[in-house]
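To the structural biology subgroup,

Please find below the input and predicted structure for AraC family transcriptional regulator, which we are adding to the shared reference set this quarter. The sequence is reproduced verbatim from the submission form. If anyone notices a discrepancy with their own records, reply to this email rather than editing the shared folder directly, so we keep one authoritative version.
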Amino acid sequence: MTYIHKLVDVPVLGNLPVQYIISEGKKDVEPVPKHWHAALEVNCVLRGQASVYMAGQTYLMRAGDALAINSFAVHAGQILCHAEADYRIITFLYPIERLYALIPNYNALVVSLAPSDERTPAQQSAYHQLYQAFDLFYQLEQGEPPFFRIDQQALCYQILYLLFKNFSARRAPDIQYIPNRCSHPQLYEVVDYILKHYMEPLHRDQIAKACGYSTRHLANRFKATYQLSLMQYVTRIRALKAMQLLQTTEQPLSWIAAKVGFSYPYALTKAFKHAFGLTPTEYRRLKLRRN
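Predicted structure (tokenized):
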């Protein structure tokens, strides 16, 4: 898998609903640079330590710790090796199209594993169950007992169930699948301008002039802060607004495309597929099936 600043494709292996990565050993490994993808990522440290950067914060994970990384959140990681000490970390990547099939309003939810001193008793119990499920998944992978694939599949769904039942909340309506606002208040005006004018024809010079920036300065600062160019951000907003309309109207794609600022339906389909892993038609079909 290539870890870079863009969407990372996550193929499903076999009959499991996740791609999983087991990292273990004693040798130093290369750090994973900042990247983001449409999949929901869940990491669990069974042994050793790891440092994970996510949404502007760095978390030190020890044995027994788990961390969820939501779709499109910029993150990076580093396994921390010590002399004669080994590590074992499991990473689950749930493809976004599988999540839509199971949770129709997935785009409206965010998963947050709270620090240990902030968990409720119910969350503490669920957190312990998460660790046990990951540990059992690893044991099954090593031994291949009878029906181990069925057992592993059940554990994948159990982990997903524990996450969304105990650690999920609704996103703010205008930041679904949009990188978190940063510590640069100067860019709030830029984001607000885009949110107010995304349905109109927009270009970099226009946005920069309206917000009092030179085009080059704004483009560089915005990309460094959000890991998206200005126009990539505009496209992401438009795709999100199209998703919201797909949930509430039966209008054709041509109408929706024009409503959210795409010049033609193909542009909507391409942007939607790139952002969410499936086409608007496929998403609408999943919604109808669930309803």
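Summary notes: Residues 1-12 have pLDDT under 50 and may be disordered. The first helix runs from residue 96 to 102.

Regards,
Lab coordination
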